[in-house]
Design goal:
single chain, about 375 residues, two-stranded antiparallel sheet
């Protein structure tokens, strides 16, 4: 409770969050691979996350969750609601609120848009199809019908996760369209909006949002340097990389690169570069300057390190990033709460918490 009050005061005094905004999160965690990107088909949704999970998340010191949802999980092929999964969504929000947690409902993946499409050789039709854009608006109409009962101080809406539009203005125009739909129905709901191209800080200068609305919160994701945070991740080109990575300092040292050959050398070239707390802060400031310019709240909705990153280095990176975010009064949500060995803060089968990571996040 003490941290939440201090963070709220800091956000207001720094001009990051306007007093008119009802939704003010602090330190949170994503609950992924449940109602979005559901990889664990052998575990029923009703068992993967339960009421006890929200109790545990709050007990660890988090004050909110970011809840990714996918179109294919909540709606049937004929666009009707999947009543069972909508029931789980409602139960999750109520369980969060019961335990003093706020909720960011994030429309993560829709049929017409997946942030991984380009890497997987697929095309997102959202940017070329007016019909698909209207369909996205209809999904938000449906969500608003379902979720408007929850207080503006405890539930926020994130329009879409990690847009990858062919040009920045295409995303800005779509933001305005979906924003208009939500605002016509809910005047004061906090709406979360990220920048184009995976919500990276480098594209924040191109982001435009409707003016004069304090209940917009800007959001960025932070996985820099990617070669470090996604070390040997199975879906990346470096999955078979034979070297190691470091933080802080050179991600791959010059001496290490000199001994590498073949594919390892190809992958590591370009990563003999120094990363430390100051470089992280310099990157975060690209988003903060935009939020300050607009007088809006700022939120780091995703960050994390893959489980194969050397633990000591991972902890130093997490400590530096969250230290910067806390220093600047920026709310955040770690990726991710529970999974089988990727970015999870808690083992999905044993329930065991990675306590060193929790302690680092909470600066204990």
């Amino acid at each position: 409770m003490k941290f939440r009050l201090i963070l709220f005061i800091a956000l207001v005094l720094k001009g990051i969050v306007c007093m008119a905004g009802d939704f003010v999160p602090g330190r949170g965690v994503n609950i992924a691979h449940w109602l979005s990107q559901c990889y664990y088909k052998d575990i029923p949704k009703s068992e993967f996350v339960t009421a006890d999970d929200f109790k545990e998340i709050a007990r660890q010191g988090f004050d909110h969750v970011r809840l990714p949802i996918d179109e294919k999980e909540l709606w049937n092929a004929d666009d009707t609601r999947n009543k069972e999964v909508f029931g789980i969504l409602h139960a999750s929000i109520r369980n969060a609120i019961k335990n003093g947690l706020k909720v960011v409902v994030d429309l993560h993946i829709v049929y017409a848009h997946d942030f991984n499409a380009g890497a997987e050789g697929r095309t997102n039709s959202l940017w070329s199809s007016e019909k698909d854009q209207e369909h996205l608006c209809s999904l938000w109409k449906d969500l608003s019908d379902e979720l408007h009962e929850y207080g503006n101080d405890v539930v926020a809406y994130e329009i879409m996760n990690e847009p990858v539009a062919p040009d920045h203005e295409a995303w800005n125009k779509l933001v305005a369209k979906v924003y208009g739909v939500i605002r016509s129905r809910e005047k004061s709901r906090t709406i979360v909006v990220g920048s184009n191209m995976w919500q990276q800080t480098a594209t924040f200068e191109h982001l435009r949002v409707p003016a004069g609305d304090d209940n917009i919160m800007l959001s960025f994701h932070f996985y820099e340097p990617y070669f470090f945070t996604h070390y040997r991740a199975g879906w990346t080109e470096q999955k078979d990389f034979g070297g190691t990575v470091h933080y802080p300092g050179e991600i791959v040292t010059a001496d290490e690169l000199a001994t590498m050959t073949g594919r390892d050398r190809q992958l590591a070239e370009g990563w003999v570069t120094v990363w430390d707390r100051q470089r992280i802060k310099d990157n975060v400031m690209k988003a903060k300057m935009k939020a300050d310019e607009l007088g809006l709240g700022l939120y780091c909705g995703e960050f994390g390190v893959y489980s194969r990153v050397p633990e000591a280095d991972a902890l130093r990176w997490l400590g530096d990033l969250t230290g910067v975010l806390d220093e600047l009064g920026i709310s955040w949500a770690l990726w991710n709460y529970k999974d089988g060995g990727g970015f999870g803060l808690r083992d999905m089968r044993t329930g065991e918490w990675h306590t060193r990571f929790v302690d680092t996040l909470m600066h204990r």
